[in-house]
Design a protein that fits this description.
140 residues
């Protein structure tokens, strides 16, 4: 029996992310499905825009990916199109958590990493589940 969407969404949201060995800013979670298939959901750091001035903002962008592998670890399907992302930023010694705009004043709009536009796992889990269920149906 194939996993239903609600159960898959819950597993996507609740399974713990683990750091990928040897990669500083890559994390993934492995969700074991029926039939020996494994869904891997994770994120990688895309780029780091650093300024020479330590008072300037440093932005780290991360992109979500997901892939389906079989029990022999063969890649069956993947989505690495970078349509979902989030970022972190620091300005001087201040991070997003310190409300950067309040601390350092106006920054150029395109340089500010806005938390309100972030794609967190809870925001994208249904999209991931829909695509993965389509993949699973195609191999049944």
């Amino acid at each position: 029996m194939m996993i239903d969407k609600e159960e898959l969404v819950e597993k996507i949201e609740k399974t713990k992310l683990e750091r990928i060995q040897d990669l500083e800013d890559s994390y993934e979670k492995r969700i074991y499905l029926d039939g020996g298939n494994v869904l891997i959901v994770g994120y990688n750091q895309e780029e780091k825009s650093e300024r020479a001035d330590p008072e300037e903002e440093t932005v780290r962008s991360f992109y979500w990916f997901w892939e389906l592998r079989n029990s022999q670890w063969d890649l069956l399907f993947e989505n690495k199109d970078k349509s979902f992302n989030f970022c972190e930023s620091d300005v001087g010694g201040w991070s997003d958590d310190d409300r950067v705009e309040d601390v350092v004043g106006d920054l150029a709009e395109e340089d500010v990493c806005k938390w309100s536009e972030q794609d967190w796992i809870e925001d994208i889990s249904e999209d991931i589940a829909d695509e993965v269920i389509g993949w699973l149906r195609s191999i049944d």
